[in-house]
Each structure stands twice: as structure tokens, then as C-alpha cells.
Amino acid sequence: MKKILLLLGLCAGFSQSVGAGDLSGLSNLTQAEFRQVSEDLGAAFSYKPITPTVALGITGFDIGVEVTATDVSKSSAALTKAGSNGTSADTLLVPKLYFAKGLPLGFDVAAFYANIPAINATLVGGELRYALIDGGVATPAVGIRGAFSNLSGSSQLAFNTRSLDVSISKGFGILTPYAGVGQVWVNSTPNVAGLSNESFTQGKVFAGANLGLGLFSVALEADKTGGTTSWGLKMGLRW
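^ thats the sequence. predicted structure below, dont judge the formating
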């Protein structure tokens, strides 16, 4: 409940300024610490759907504000050494603007833009999703998604992720639960002497639910990528 209240509070204050760091101290890290940071950032920055699997359809849109809160307690000490100034010692918040559009033949596309005050950087990402089974009254929707994310604005860190997942959802009135599994590929490149590039994969599982109240919708999602847990909340318009 505390995490949900924290997410709601951040959504309400999306445009407010907060203190920021810039990850300008990566040279202070050992290679093992940089790997810990990269693993947690991979979980925090990789694509989070926060949406049911069912296709939007050619006239469909999904527009909203979302935020994810990732438990970075494993690397919080290293992040502090690296120059991060998070909103709490163990939680990294990523507020986003999200847009999705339905296409013909069961395809959807989506993109997000995020400003990350904790490291004074921006994150963009996108997805292409295909409905293997569109779903109906008696059958669930099943879909496959390819996605990416890319960090910019950090002078000492080049960071990007790619992911692939399969998910399922089934509507019950105004509530649509969903769940999925996938894989995330992380590429973390330090632009400082003494540290080497970290490229690795992480398994991913996630589950959530979307509450549709007419055009307005609220979605809540739990995600575990590698050994790191994130919670996500999205509010907006969906039709």
C-alpha cells in the first residue's frame, strides 16, 4: 500500500522539480559494483507494458501518465557513490508519458518518454505487439511483444535494453487481469577509465490488472526482472 500511495503522489506531482544527481562518479565504482548498478538499472529502465494483452484495434488508443518504482536496495550504496540522488535510499522512481495506438491485423505500437530526476537523464522506449489470439467472451487474449529502451543525457553512461515477452489477459467486466514472461537484454557501457562494458540477459515475469471506467483506465503492475522487483501504475484514457 505504501508503494501504491507513493506512485499516486508522484503522478500528481509529475511536473514538479526534485533534487537530481548525474551519475558523474562512475569512476568511484569497482567492476562488481558497476555490475550491481547495471542489473538494477536494467530492471528499472527496461520496458514495462502496464497494459492488458488484448489488441486495441484499428481505432484504439491508450494515452496516459505512468510511474514505476524499482527496489534498488541491492545497489543503493553503489548508486550513491556514482552520484545518484534518488527519491529514497532504496527506490528508483521513473515517471513516464505513454502513448499506444492500435493497428490493423492485431498489431499495436506504443512509446514512452521519461525524465529521471534521480540521475538527471531521460529515457525513451517503444514496443510492437502482436495478438496471437485476440480473445473473446470465453477465450483469453495471447500476445507477443518486442520492446526497447534507451537512456540519454548521462555523460558517463550509455545504457539500453531490448526485451521479448509473451503475455495473456482475460477481461471480467471492467477488470482485466494479465500476466507474462520474457527475457531482457541489457547493454551498459561506462564512459570512464577502469570499468568495462556489462552486457547480460535477465529473465522477466510480470502480472497486473487494468480497471476500465468508461474512457478512463487505471492499471497496476508488478514486475520482477532478474532479482529486482518493480511496481508500476498507469492512469489515463483507453479506448
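The first strand starts at residue 61 and ends at 71.
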